Amino acid sequence: MPLGIFGGTFDPVHLGHLRLAEEAADSLGLAGVCWIPAGQPTHRAQDAKLPRVTAADRLAMVRLATAGNPRFTVDAGEVEAAVPSYTVPTLERLRAGPAGTRPRVLLVGADAFAGMPGWHRWEELFTLAHIAVAHRPGFPIDAASLPPALAAHYRERRAESPALLAESPAGRIVTFAMTQLAVSATQIRALLANGRSPRYLLPDSVIAYIRSRHLYTPSPEPSAP
Q1: Between helices 15-28 and 55-66, what is the axis angle to 10°?
Q2: Strands of 95-172, DSSP E
Q3: How many CB atoms lie within 10 A of CB 177?
Q4: What is the pLDDT of residues 58-114, one digit of tens each?
Q5: H helix runs in the chain, sequence order
Q6: What is the pLDDT of residues 55-70, one digit of tens each?
Q7: Are the beta carbons of 106 and 129 closer than 8 angstroms?
Q8: 123: closest CA among 159, 82, 156, 77?
Q9: At how many degrees (to 10) do helices 55-66 and 204-213 cross?
Q10: Which of 15, 57, 109, 217 pairs with 26 at a CA distance of 20 to 30 A?
Q11: Cβ neighbours of residue 53 closer than 8 Å, sequence gap 6 or more
Q12: CB-based contacts of 77, cutoff 8 Å, min separation 6
């Protein structure tokens, strides 16, 4: 069975992330989902304020959030490498490991998929994994709205049935509708920065970790001499 690959900053991991992974596993017939927190997220390198917490803290929160779900595993390779994280090298690392020819399915949202031509070595993604795109119910992916180079790949590689993912290690594109949850990491960071409760947006174990480590709270002003 194909294995889902879910990478991200997870700053912090929240219920929207968890629901996407759960629905992808069900909709696509995945054996499980491997979560891969980015060590040094390159797409946020221009903002010196983000990520707001260390890679080790983000990894710990993902482990807490996914604990207890037998379909979820966590790969710490990108955090331990302590180098800028790019999707293609990450997938190459997985392909070089055990079960290198196993079908792998990269999970992305519709917005991330539309921006894929801006990714590092993006066209090599199709030689390393299938791509599964989550979209809002009733709003399927429209090839005409995609950048031309990506639209060409989408039309060529689109698979109507997720069952086709098991037939090859990589190269297909599938889509699936997922429940929309009005939750984002940006929103959660703003709540915490203002001393408000993030309850019901994050797993309780993650909230407890954030509070124990005093994460996402404003740094105290230095005392006057």
Answers
A1: 50
A2: 104-109, 130-135
A3: 14
A4: 999 999 999 999 999 999 999 999 788 899 999 999 999 888 899 999 999 999 999
A5: 15-28, 55-66, 77-81, 87-95, 110-114, 125-128, 148-157, 185-193, 204-213
A6: 999 999 999 999 999 9
A7: yes
A8: 156
A9: 150
A10: 57
A11: 11, 12, 213, 215, 216
A12: 36, 90, 93
Contact 104, 3 (CB under 8 A): yes
Written as one string, the DSSP assignment of 37-85 is E-SEEGGGTT-TT-SSS-HHHHHHHHHHHHTT-TTEEE--HHHHHTSEE
Give the residue from 125, 107, 118, 155 showing the smallest Cα distance to 3.
107
Nearest to 29 by CA among 115, 130, 99, 123: 130
| pLDDT at 50 (0 to 100) | 62
> In 3-state terms, what secondary structure has residue 35?
strand
Hey, which CATH number is domain 3-182, 3.40.50.620, 3.40.50.1970, 3.90.76.10, 3.40.1380.20?
3.40.50.620
Domain boundaries, the chain: 3-182
CA atoms of 4 and 131, how far apart (whole Å): 9
